[in-house]
Amino acid sequence: MFSDLSAQRGGSSLLCRPASEDQGPVFERTSLDYSPSTERYRVGERSFNRQYAHIYAARLMEMRPLLSETAKHKWGSDVHIRKLCDLETGEQCCIVGTLFKRMDLQPSILKEISEEHNLLPQPARTKYITEADELILEDELQRIKLEGKIDRDKCVTGSVIAIYGAEKNDGKFTVEDFCTADLPSQVPRPALSSDK
């Protein structure tokens, strides 16, 4: 690269070939065959397919009919089961969705990377829950904050539940009661004829 630049300028420098034999011997550079062996260290194509949204959506689609039946059994067959986009302020109804628990103290790799320049280690925590944690219910289209008779300390992200209550004017859903799907009935197994 540098010898090409000096040759273009036409001047004499240490990087260009001597103009005459009187200036000293000319050494020919030997060329070697080179094959790069760094391919195994190259970062391959990045894939962001390992997201959990499709798992939550599939779980919600499977659990919605089960939870709707459980909700009708618990709160009566005339209970209105709505999606979040169909909610009306003040209407008593049931909605089925996936819980998301927003926790400010929850460890996050993104927070660690963003705070990477700070050399002080983060203090070890004995608990990750606070009074500021929020429960959010989401379905296929929307999400809504929950408040009322639901213990946020006993709820976890990813649970599919049915909640009964009403949306208030501030956009939050006031929970009066909730239910989860029961365990599926056990598949009957044949009795063993002998114990081995």
Topology:
Elements: H1 2-9, H2 53-75, E1 81-82, E2 93-102, H3 109-114, E3 134-138, E4 143-148, E5 160-167, E6 173-180
Parallel strand pairs: 1-2, 4-6
Antiparallel strand pairs: 2-3, 2-5, 3-4, 5-6
Organism: Ilyodon furcidens
Region (Disordered): 1-22
Family: Belongs to the DNA polymerase delta/II small subunit family.
Strand percentage = 15-25%
Please write the string of helix (H) and strand (E) elements.
HHEEHEEEE
Biggest pleated-sheet summary: 5 strands, mixed, barrel
Helix content: 10-25%
Strand order of the largest sheet: 2-3-4-6-5
Determine and state the CATH class of the domain at 53-115 and 129-180: Mainly Beta
The CATH level-2 architecture of the domain at 53-115 and 129-180 is identified as Beta Barrel
Number of helices: 3
Oligomer: single chain
CATH third-level topology of the domain at 53-115 and 129-180:
OB fold (Dihydrolipoamide Acetyltransferase, E2P)
Keywords: DNA replication
Biased composition (Polar residues): 1-11
Protein name: DNA polymerase delta subunit 2
Family: Belongs to the DNA polymerase delta/II small subunit family.
